[in-house]
Structures are given as C-alpha cells and as structure tokens.
Structure prediction request, 262 residues.
Amino acid sequence: MKQFDPILIFTMAAIVVMLYCLWTTIHLKKNIPGGVVGKKWNLMTALVVMFTLGYFTTPFFTQIPEDVLRFIVSLIFFCGAVYVLITVRLIYTIITELSE
Amino acid sequence: MEHNLVYNKTEKGKDEIVTKKWGLNLNLRRILILVDGKKDVASLLSKGSVFKDIESSLEELSRDGYIEIAGKSDSTGSSESSPSINLQSSAGSDDPKQQLIDLAINILGEKDSGKIVEKLYASASNKDDLLTTAKNCSKIIKLTIDEDKAKTFLNNAIKLIR
Prediction:
C-alpha cells in the first residue's frame, strides 16, 4: 500500500485550482473589454499563465537542478508579489471611482 | 418592411424588459429597448452600424407579440443615416431616457452597450435620477470599457439632460 503523500496532494490541488483560475480569468475577460480594469486584467491574465506554467513544474522539483529550482521559485514569488500589488491597486482604484 | 412604420412596445414587451421571463436573446432585447413608439423603422435602421438584422428582428419581435405597429411617420427618417455621435440623431424622441440610450449605443456600439442600455432603461425618468444613472454608467464605462468613451458619454449625457 502506498504511503499518504500530503505534498503530492497539495501540489496537485494547487495545479487544479490554478487551472480553474486561468479558465476563470480568460472566461471573464469578455465582460471587461477595456477601461481601467480591462487593462489590468490583461496583465493579471499574463501573470496567471506564468503561475500555471510554474505550478506545472512543481511535481518535477526533485528532478530539477537546485540552481534552476531556486530560480523558478524566486520567479514565482516575484510574480506573486507583482500580482498582489496589481490587485490591491486595482481594488483601491475601483473603490475610489465608485465612491466619488 | 415599410420604413415609415413606427413600432411601440406591447405590455408583453415592457414586461419582458423588466422580468426577462421569456428569455429574449440579447440582440432582440436591445432592439426591443430601442423601440419607443416614436422612432420609425428608418430611424432604427440608421443604427445599422451597431445593430445587425434590425428589420428581421423587428418582424420577429412583432410576430412574438413584444411590439406592435403604433402608426406611420411622415418621413422616412433618411436624414438620420449617420451613425456618428450626434445629439440631433436622438431628437426623434423627446424622452431624455431614450435619448441617453441612443447616445450609449452610438458611443459604445452594440457589443459593449448592453449593460449600460439596461441600466439606463431601468432608471427613473426624472432629470436628477437620469443624471445620477448617467454618472454611474460613466464610471462603469471608465472601469470596464474605455476611459475616453466614458468622458464623451458623460459630457453628452449632461448636455442632453439639461
């Protein structure tokens, strides 16, 4: 009987959720053709694509050379920080616009 | 189809706009909103650049009981053939709400005007409420469609309402 591997389960769950995020981002884009949100949405979509690709490398982390692995992880962290920054700024812009 | 025919919404048509209970598709729904008992077919056709198949849509709406013939206009309305942003092109209707709907369609086009048209249609018809709705619509346009179009819409809307 195989041993329970929580890391593998979380990795797979993360990939599934990220794929759902990617589908949602692309699916909702048609409702936001442009404007302030539309422009940021394109950037967010690009970042989600990068995250998805990055997440797909996680099952192979044991086979990737350490320096490449560190580069991938640091890149994902950086993109994550940019994503959070864009999201926070976007929410603030929307709140400001709607409260005027 | 005679181009001087003027259509008006039936009770079923008005009910459909509010309740959506017959599940009219988006294109027919938008054309139904445009029908105001004042604009003739020629005037509706002048929006041909943004709405497709208006004649067949009107026939379908009429056949299904959403609109009915209210009369005939004196002219064919050919002078309203320009689809460009022109406040005079909305002058066929003296209802400011309908003029705002026409303005939104002219500026945003068929594809992007749907939600804005529905918001304007749902607004009360007095000046204060229309102005508030127009400002809110302008914010939605700025956030989700185009910042320049939002400015153009709001400036023209204010002129129309005042």
Summary: Chain A touches chain B at residues 31-38, 94, 97-98, 100 (CB under 8 Å). The mean pLDDT of chain A is 91. Helices of chain A lie at 6-29, 35-57, 66-99.
